[in-house]
Amino acid sequence: MKHEDYDDAEFEDDDDFEDDGYDDRTHYAYDDEEEEEDEVEYYAVRPNKTRIKKEIAAIFAMAEEISALAPAHIAEFELPENVEKALCDAGKMGRNAAKKRLLKYITGQMRELDVDAIREKLARLKNRSAHGVREHHQAERWRDQLLSEAGNAALTQLVSEFPEADTQHLRQLQRNALKEAKEAKPPKSARLLYKYLKQLISDTGHSTAADAAEPEEDLD
């Protein structure tokens, strides 16, 4: 899922966020001409404005991405209740000014949290989703092959790649599905065949080279 970038100007003023989380730091410097300890001068050094803008923009983008997830997935981040609710609410909105304001509020709240931990959880969730998509596609392909004219050969290949498979059960589901299709009946057995294949692939953790080469899809 790709977010639409916002102009950097949107992040020029930290007052747009509830609490920017950045305090001035004190730098200690000695006067070259005066080496005595009591001649220490204190200089207030403001944080780099460009760096802060980039950090805010990155958190804003992450908040927007998380808000697009299903509520059950958002709950997995274990965020404060107000942040979780705001993210769920933002996900229901269209792309408008109200959503933008809400995302700014969320960004301000998230800057007070462990951003790296949130980013890591998002990466794991996306990876898990991409893996699930590959398993889904693989199960669909095996089902279609088993129900094609070359179904017997496909079954032999499937059992060869998945020794754990229940050959008798697969053959029965295959026959029933073909019979239902011939008689124009609801594809009950075809659905059961897909379900069995999906579980088989998930349990064994098996993935063909073709599946591994597929590009990962964004998490919606």
UniProtKB/TrEMBL annotation:
Signal sequence interval, chain numbering? none
The record's keywords, sorted A to Z, are: Cytoplasm, Ribosome biogenesis, RNA-binding, rRNA-binding
Q: Where in the cell is it found?
A: Cytoplasm
- Alphabetized Gene3D superfamilies for the sequence: PSPTO4464-like domains
On the tree of life, the source organism's domain of life is Bacteria
Region (Disordered) residue ranges read 1-40
Composition bias type Acidic residues, residue spans: 1-22, 31-40
InterPro entries assigned: DarP, DarP_sf
Q: Which family does it belong to?
A: Belongs to the DarP family.
NCBIfam families (UniProt xref): PRK05255.1-1
Q: What does this protein do?
A: Member of a network of 50S ribosomal subunit biogenesis factors which assembles along the 30S-50S interface, preventing incorrect 23S rRNA structures from forming. Promotes peptidyl transferase center (PTC) maturation.
Q: What is this protein called?
A: Dual-action ribosomal maturation protein DarP
Q: Which organism is it from?
A: Methylomonas aurea
Per the record, the gene is darP
